């Protein structure tokens, strides 16, 4: 189950064997994928052209352009809802202190500076490992307190790359 806000109204979205369920009611639509980013939708005898402008899986947001209007949709899954219910959603972000290297490699890019505020999912570093570039993203909203590496540095798994304050 997911929760979001559609036109300033809270909504729950679920998926059953027969299709999507919106606010407990079956949601019937005809959807045709035109390209990787564009769709044509028929819903209640109305036609909609939709384009995915941005998809951020880490932040669980989607930016859609539907019939010329831009909509930003923030999804919360059951784990987000549980943390929120327990009052822990902000506590998780507050505990973010260090960003550590997930694997050994070479720092090929740094996209933030000390004092910068980053959002969850923002790219902060680019780490080359096994001839592949890996984007390292901010785990939560935070301010960069210190950058412990420079472009060209070799790092080991678990080494502190960035400190957040």
TrEMBL record:
<dbReference type="Pfam" id="PF00364">
    <property type="entry name" value="Biotin_lipoyl"/>
</dbReference>
<dbReference type="InterPro" id="IPR050709">
    <property type="entry name" value="Biotin_Carboxyl_Carrier/Decarb"/>
</dbReference>
<keyword id="KW-0092">Biotin</keyword>
<dbReference type="InterPro" id="IPR000089">
    <property type="entry name" value="Biotin_lipoyl"/>
</dbReference>
<feature type="domain" description="Lipoyl-binding">
    <location>
        <begin position="83"/>
        <end position="165"/>
    </location>
</feature>
<protein>
    <submittedName>
        <fullName>Biotin/lipoyl-binding protein</fullName>
    </submittedName>
</protein>
<dbReference type="InterPro" id="IPR001882">
    <property type="entry name" value="Biotin_BS"/>
</dbReference>
<dbReference type="InterPro" id="IPR011053">
    <property type="entry name" value="Single_hybrid_motif"/>
</dbReference>
